[in-house]
Write a structure and sequence with these properties.
Structural class: alpha+beta
Number of helices: 4
Number of domains: 4
Radius of gyration: 53 Å
Length: 418
C-alpha cells in the first residue's frame, strides 16, 4: 500500500536563499550607515574634542603682540650736512642736556661765512663813507652859505648907500641899478643854496637809512649762517640714553639725515599692531592687560594711528600705574585688548568646528554619551578662548568643538567605541 509523502514547507534550499537575502539586506543597511549615504556615521570619540557649555563672565577681546618702547624718544637729525669730525659719546651711554655727542665739519659753510663777513664789512665801509661825504657836503654848503650871507650883507649895504647918493645925483643911474641887481642876485642865490642844502640833507638821510638797513640785514644773515655753524655740533637736547648713533669719523652726513636717538627712560609704553578689521572698534581710552611673571598689568590706549599698512594699524598704550620691573626696550609682549565690557553669558570653547559651520550649528552630545546630533545655534561675540552663545545651547551640555572635516554632512554621530 502506497503512503502519501507530504511536501516540506521550508526546504533547505529555500532556507539558504532566505538567509542569503537577509544577510545581503543587513550588508546594505550597514553600508548605508557607514558610507555616508544616510544621516548617521560611526566615529571614534578618542579622535575628537568634546567641550562643556558653561555660563560665566565673558568679555570680547583680541590678542595682539606689542613692542615695549620708551615713553618718549627724541631723534637726532643733521640740521646741516657735513663730514663727521669727532664723536664724543658712544651708543648706549647716558647723556644730560647739552652734552656734546658729535661734531660735523663743513668747509663750504666756513667759506660762506667768510664771504658774508667780507660783504658786511664792505657795506659798513660804504655806510661810513656816505656819512663822511654827507658831513663834508654839509660843511661845504655851510661855507657857501656863509660866503653868500657875506655878499648879501655887502651888496645890501652898497645898495642902501647908492640909494642915498642917487637922490643927490652923486652917482649915475647905471651904478645904482647895478647895485640893486647885485643885491637881488645874492638874495636869490642864498635862497637857492638853502633849498639845495635841505634837499641834499634829505637825500643823504635816506641813503644812510638804506645803508643801515642793508647792514642790519647782512648782520642778521651772518648770524643765521653762524647759527648753522653751531648746528654742526650735535648736542643732547634731553636727558636720557643714547640708544642709537649711526655715525663714523670721516663719514659724510646729508642735511636732515637721521643720526641717532635718545630715549627718555622715565617710563615705557607699548606699541601694538592691530588687524584693520577692528579699526572701527578701537579708540583712545580702551583698556588692555598683559601678564608678566604671573602678575597682570593694566594699560590704556593713548593714541591710535589711523594709517593702515599691510592690513594693520598701530596703537600706543601706557601703563595704568607702575610699569613692570625689568622691562626692556624692544621686548615683545602679548596684549589682551578689550573690545567690550565684562558681562555674564553662556559660552562655548573655540575650536575647529567654526570653520565648517560658521557658528550656525554644532554637534551636541546626548546625555547617554553614546552619540551626538546636529543642532542649530547662534553665536555672538568671541575672544581667543571662547564664543558667546546667543541661542541653541544650555549650560552643562556637551558639544563637539574639534574639526568637522569628513562628517559635517551627517545629522547623527555614533561613538563606536562606547
Amino acid at each position: 500500500m502506497d503512503r502519501k509523502i507530504e511536501k516540506r514547507k521550508f526546504p533547505p534550499k529555500k532556507i539558504a536563499w532566505l538567509s542569503a537575502a537577509v544577510a545581503f539586506l543587513c550588508l546594505v543597511v550597514w553600508g548605508l550607515v557607514t558610507t555616508g549615504s544616510g544621516s548617521t556615521l560611526k566615529i571614534d570619540s578618542r579622535k575628537i574634542t568634546i567641550s562643556k557649555v558653561s555660563r560665566g563672565e565673558f568679555q570680547e577681546y583680541i590678542s595682539v603682540n606689542g613692542t615695549v618702547l620708551p615713553i618718549s624718544t627724541f631723534y637726532l637729525d643733521a640740521v646741516e650736512g657735513g663730514r663727521v669730525k669727532k664723536i664724543f659719546v658712544e651708543e648706549g651711554n647716558y647723556v644730560n642736556v647739552g652734552d656734546d655727542i658729535l661734531e660735523l665739519d663743513n668747509t663750504d659753510l666756513h667759506l660762506d661765512i667768510m664771504y658774508r663777513e667780507a660783504q658786511l664789512y664792505e657795506q659798513i665801509n660804504n655806510l661810513r663813507n656816505t656819512r663822511l661825504a654827507m658831513e663834508q657836503q654839509s660843511l661845504r654848503l655851510r661855507e657857501q652859505l656863509l660866503e653868500i650871507d657875506y655878499q648879501v650883507a655887502k651888496s645890501k649895504r652898497q645898495y642902501e648907500q647908492y640909494s642915498t647918493l642917487i637922490d643927490k645925483d652923486l652917482i649915475s643911474r647905471d651904478a645904482f641899478d647895478q647895485a640893486g641887481e647885485d643885491y637881488d642876485y645874492w638874495l636869490g642865490k642864498r635862497d637857492l643854496t638853502v633849498e639845495t642844502q635841505k634837499q641834499d640833507s634829505i637825500l643823504r638821510t635816506i641813503q644812510i637809512e638804506q645803508l643801515e638797513r642793508s647792514v642790519e640785514r647782512m648782520q642778521t644773515n651772518l648770524e643765521v649762517v653762524k647759527q648753522k655753524l653751531e648746528n654742526l655740533a650735535i648736542r643732547a637736547p634731553i636727558k636720557g640714553q643714547l640708544t642709537l648713533l649711526n655715525a663714523e669719523v670721516g663719514e659724510s652726513k646729508s642735511r636732515g639725515e637721521r643720526i641717532g636717538q635718545i630715549d627718555v627712560l622715565e617710563g615705557f609704553k607699548i606699541r601694538a599692531a592691530v588687524d584693520e578689521f577692528y579699526i572701527a572698534r578701537v579708540a583712545v581710552g580702551q583698556t588692555a592687560t598683559i601678564r608678566l611673571s604671573d602678575v597682570t598689568y593694566n594699560l590704556e590706549i593713548k593714541k591710535v594711528y589711523p594709517e593702515v599698512r599691510q592690513g594693520r594699524f598701530e596703537i600706543d598704550l601706557e601703563f595704568q600705574g607702575a610699569a613692570p620691573e625689568g622691562i626692556r626696550r624692544g621686548q615683545t609682549v602679548q596684549l589682551r585688548l578689550a573690545l567690550g565690557n565684562l558681562s555674564e553669558a553662556v559660552t562655548v570653547a573655540r575650536g575647529g568646528f567654526y570653520q565648517k559651520t560658521a557658528g550656525r550649528w554644532i554637534y551636541v552630545v546626548d546625555e547617554s554619551g553614546e552619540f551626538a546630533v546636529k543642532r542649530k545655534i547662534s553665536l555672538g561675540m568671541q575672544n581667543p578662548q571662547e564664543y558667546e552663545v546667543l541661542e541653541g545651547l544650555e549650560p552643562g551640555e556637551m558639544v563637539i568643538t574639534s574639526s568637522y572635516d569628513g562628517f559635517e554632512d551627517f545629522d547623527r554621530l555614533v561613538f563606536k567605541d562606547k
